[in-house]
Amino acid sequence: MVAFRKMHGLGNDFVVLDGRETPLAVTPDAARGIGDRHFGIGFDQLIVMEPPPAGAPGDVDVFMRILNPDGSEAEACGNATRCIASLVADQAGRDRVVVRTVAGDLPVERLAGGLWRADMGPARLGWRDVPLAEECDTLHVPLALGPVSDPAACSMGNPHATFFVPELDAIPVAEIGPKLERHPIFPERANIGFAQVLSPERIRLVMWERGAGMTLACGSGACATIVNAARRGLTGRRAAVELPGGTLTMEWRNDGHVLMTGPVATSFTGELDLARYGA
After folding, report:
1. Residue 103: what pLDDT?
2. Domains parsed from the chain with CATH numbers
3. Catalytic residue among 83, 154, 218, 223, which?
């Protein structure tokens, strides 16, 4: 049996496994089984904590492996980064830790009121960075489907496209999200954001996450949204991003790094039998 912790950031929920002392080989089939909300535990992402890889800088505290409910691996997850940082910081008795992901090293610090601020690294704005299948202006990607068109794209270590819409409630996210995620212009698929700018300081956002579908919150999606909104001149470089599960405070610094501030929570703990899921 393997201990697990069910955590969430604004309802974006994770099953967290600790493989730092005893390595855990979680197969795509096992991830799919554990992620089933009827026959497994259910999650938006499965997180496996691992030791920092050989050669990592001395300030890196943990490596975070991210698996989606469809078994695919994700490069970045902002809400999970805060959750994992809070666990490591509490265990180490510190207020600042560095979480390594496939997308890079992410410093996270504890703030007052149970909040955590993660430096999600620099937004990457080139068409090859996203990546896109063809050369184009990432501020105006030639893509339209139904009521949405003209998204802006960037990478936060994972690919994102943001559609700015006048009325979010009128968008059939569950219908068009999966089609946009797998559009040929995104060779690695993409996370799709639908954003309504309420004011220069407030954005309402619903995400269709690559490999996970609609979620209550998406940290990297909120990062991409503030970047793309500021690039379009729709907001400043700091704004509150309101997701179905709650609000994240976002800042796109002048050096290109994106800061994300929000809460973390543990829902429950338990044990699971990885062998039952084919691991």
Report:
1. 86
2. 2-112+264-277 (3.10.310.10), 124-255 (3.10.310.10)
3. 218
